[in-house]
Write a structure and sequence with these properties.
It comes from Cycloclasticus pugetii. The active site is at 231. The chain has 287 residues and is of the alpha/beta class. 31% of the residues lie in helices and 30% in strands. The protein has a seven-stranded mixed beta sheet. Strands 2-3-1-4 form a four-stranded antiparallel beta sheet, with helices on one face. β12 (276-279) and β13 (282-285) form a beta hairpin. The model has no long low-confidence stretch (mean pLDDT 96).
């Protein structure tokens, strides 16, 4: 086993005395060397959140038995919701995109440079614009056009591809189709979306034009997990850029798209590093 291989526990439970002691005692008595630990208590909700990472080298519990043993000795007694991930398992991402390619370009750049330790077996799109971009990166491109008449059939084709490639995370890199509840239910808190902050103030196909006419002073971007309520899932990452009085419409687009790329990349990284814990409809992000 690689000396640097770690296990990561994300956990939440009702707040009570002794939670940290119970978790760390479990790790210590089994020769677990803790390399990172962070906790938070929501005092209004009386709820506890924790992320702890420890090295697996010399850990006395077999890897395959860690979850069962932790549940029996710690998790069940604390009424805890928890999950354990391992650092040497590469996440497998699928990228969904429509016609705007700025987020896709950014993700593929980070992927090809080795910034993210991840596999990206496929890109799915309802347009052919970015087929060569995906294929030049060595990634299979699947053109799956969607209409009101074929939506159910085409989503099933997408789900079949995702299952075939053992995808665990989906990134909507400006994919301009609304996913059905059935599709979303297959990947709870595993679909990451990005959108700008112009809705609902500036709806329609030309939000930057409308925003420019109103003289907006900031442009924001939000990355969140997808739920059945449109653009209302738990927020992972947000940021803004400021707009000057002499910025034209193209400046707004450039600043807005740059911001979307950065916010989405941060959200993906948080997710890949197992730093996001979803509670109710919000994210606790340990960064």
């Amino acid at each position: 086993m690689n000396q640097q291989t770690t296990a990561i526990l994300l956990a939440e439970c009702p707040d009570q005395a002794g939670i940290i002691a119970k978790v760390t005692n479990f790790l210590t008595k089994n020769n677990g060397n803790i390399v990172d630990l962070e906790q938070h208590v929501d005092t209004a909700d009386k709820h506890f959140f924790m992320r702890v990472e420890w090295q697996l080298e010399n850990f006395s519990i077999d890897r395959e038995q860690i979850q069962k043993t932790f549940s029996e000795e710690v998790g069940s007694a604390l009424n805890m919701n928890w999950q354990i991930a391992f650092s040497d398992i590469k996440p497998r991402l699928a990228l969904f995109v429509s016609q705007h390619g700025h987020c896709l370009f950014d993700i593929l750049s980070r992927y090809q440079s080795g910034e993210w330790d991840v596999e990206i077996p496929l890109v799915i799109s309802n347009h052919k614009n970015h087929q060569s971009l995906a294929e030049n990166a060595g990634i299979a491109f699947h053109h799956i056009p969607i209409t009101a008449d074929n939506k159910q059939q085409q989503e099933q084709a997408q789900l079949d591809l995702l299952a075939k490639h053992q995808i665990d995370t989906i990134v909507l890199a400006r994919y301009m189709q609304i996913l059905s509840a059935n599709f979303i239910d297959h990947y709870p808190h595993q679909i990451i979306n990005i959108h700008h902050s112009f809705l609902p103030a500036f709806p329609g196909a030309r939000p930057y034009h409308s925003a420019h006419e109103r003289g907006v002073k900031i442009i924001g971007a939000t990355s969140h997990y997808v739920t059945t309520e449109l653009d209302a899932g738990p927020i992972i990452e947000q940021d803004i850029v400021r707009i000057r009085h002499n910025d034209n419409i193209e400046d707004l687009k450039r600043k807005g798209q740059d911001n979307e790329k950065i916010v989405l990349s941060r959200a993906i990284r948080h997710h890949l590093m197992h730093k996001v814990l979803v509670y109710k409809n919000r994210c606790i992000v340990f960064v």
